[in-house]
Amino acid sequence: MSIRDIFKKNKPNRKTMTSKGQHDVPEGIVTKCPECNHVMLTKDLQKNQKVCPNCQYHHKLTSQERIEDFLDEGTFESFDDHLQTVNPLNFPGYVEKVKSDMKKTGLNEAVLTGTGMLEGNKVVVAVMDSFFRMGSMGSVVGEKITRAIEKATELGVPFIIFTASGGARMQEGVISLMQMAKTSVALERHGAKGNLFISIMTHPTTGGVSASFASLGDINLAEPQALIGFAGRRVIEQTVREKLPNDFQTAEFLLAHGQLDAVVPRSDMRKTVGTLVKLHVKEAV
Amino acid sequence: MVKTLPFEEPLVQLKTKITELKEYTSDAEVDLTKEITQLEERFTNLEKDIYHNLKPWDRVQIARHPERPTTLDYVKVLFDDFIELHGDRNFGDDEAIVGGVASFEETPITIIGHQRGKDTKENIRRNFGMPHPEGYRKALRLMKQAEKFKRPIICFIDTKGAYPGKAAEERGQSEAIARNLLEMAGLKVPIISVVIGEGGSGGALALGVANHVHMLENSTYSVISPEGAASILWKDATLAQKAAEAMRITAPNLKEEEIIEEIVPEVLGGAHKDIDTQASYLKEVLSKSLSELKTLDEEQLIDQRYNKFRKIGVFSEE
Ligand SMILES: [Zn+2]
């Protein structure tokens, strides 16, 4: 099945979605860049991988857009679209909110996982989606990512994740915290068998996701300007009572502090990761 | 005098009344022995009634009691030959985490734990038990050392969370926590973690990827503090009491979810009432846990740990 078919089946209206700023202008036709206020045709922004041609601001991608942008055309096959979120702590309205985001995004939860080809090499990918409950990680997200890692281990192929998450999903309590451990034990096993894991942090990657799989790549990459950090800026400002620099917790800040291998613009991402994967193909050596 | 918690007020009032009566009778001619005995009986019953029906918020308060025993308090009573080992060999020594070697029932072990202070001065030195990345990296160094010498590892979890500070972010707080989760998964020696106070979020979990996880009866383990949950869920931090119930953060809750193995019983009123007795309860659980894990070989230990965390999650496959 091609990815277009999949998207046709469960992803209505996803193509016209844009990131913040979309409320300022009539929906769909034009988009205003939230960073530089440049107004452009949405279709021109789409053509430019949703990177503002004026200031290079990387607009958020939906997980489907990311797959389309990143993998060889028509090679993606998704996993576990049937897993459903339940309400372990009986929080009023929780399932309803999840259902509404399912409808909005065409996803079953805040991550899309599956196999595909990257410049001719087979990979397993997971793409988190910050339009779904801010990409927060509950049981289904943890389970889907863990299953994807296990699949990559079983196939002996690289596991690649694009992270975008506000952290653990509070409405699932300590179970959501434990998803950090669950995904990490799976990554340990994947790595112990000599398999590659590449983590690509996109805006935003914070909290429990930042403090688990996002930081555990053999190679850790990030998109320009992405917000990446453990604690929220406001919490830190209240704790340390000092003004934080403007670039605090940006991808560039992390790179300067030795926390990232590279900051890679979206236009180079496919090529860069494709090359990294090629250099790690086991039979090649 | 130990600090009294709000839910203990009725006990304090009754105790005061009994003391007054006793004082009065020692000066007066009247004999109130019978009345006093009755009141003392009432006190014993009330004590049981209160302490056996603790609400989640009461447990949170016990877990945060300033005199609650810390990692080093238990180390003193439970282990012999403890020698503290410092530093991460890279940046510094984070005193919010302590670690070292010791023996437990004749077995050499490695001990690692969050360490709060008992007074303001010590709390400042130990950053209120909230570690920086170098604390987690020290912990990992000691775990790897334990693995090399085939020593079991015992971790004590007792933190509000990893420190949310500028320097912590610069030095990679996220990576330090994440690294421990991954490395603990692969260690070839038994790991036992016990939550002895507050188990706050990722900063707690970074010492928690163990074969067996136990909790003291009045300790808590949560993704966010009750105050934090209340302010996010209901935009009102004063609803922490309600959040403590809703978030299911107590030892009995986590036992029910099968996230922890054992609840370590506490002395009536909380661990701070009698540290020696409390340590003996803890010793019993640790001893049983360790002898169970000693029967597993390296591969079985790693598999057991994998399966323990692999199965956590609630969802439907419809
Ligand atoms: Zn722009």
From TrEMBL, chain A:
Entry-linked Pfam families: Carboxyl_trans, Zn_ribbon_ACC
EC number(s) per entry: 2.1.3.15
Cofactor: Zn(2+)
Cofactor annotation remark: Binds 1 zinc ion per subunit.
Molecular-function annotations in GO: acetyl-CoA carboxylase activity; ATP binding; carboxyl- or carbamoyltransferase activity; zinc ion binding
Coiled coil feature spans: none
Region (Disordered): 1-23
Annotated positions binding Zn(2+): 33, 36, 52, 55
Keywords: ATP-binding, Cytoplasm, Fatty acid biosynthesis, Fatty acid metabolism, Lipid biosynthesis, Lipid metabolism, Metal-binding, Nucleotide-binding, Transferase, Zinc, Zinc-finger
Single GO BP term: malonyl-CoA biosynthetic process
Zinc finger map (C4-type): 33-55
Pathway in which this enzyme or protein is active: Lipid metabolism; malonyl-CoA biosynthesis; malonyl-CoA from acetyl-CoA: step 1/1
Function comment: Component of the acetyl coenzyme A carboxylase (ACC) complex. Biotin carboxylase (BC) catalyzes the carboxylation of biotin on its carrier protein (BCCP) and then the CO(2) group is transferred by the transcarboxylase to acetyl-CoA to form malonyl-CoA.
Known partners and oligomeric status: Acetyl-CoA carboxylase is a heterohexamer composed of biotin carboxyl carrier protein (AccB), biotin carboxylase (AccC) and two subunits each of ACCase subunit alpha (AccA) and ACCase subunit beta (AccD).
Designated name of the protein: Acetyl-coenzyme A carboxylase carboxyl transferase subunit beta
Organism, as annotated: Rummeliibacillus stabekisii
Lineage, highest ranks first: Bacteria, Bacillati, Bacillota, Bacilli, Bacillales
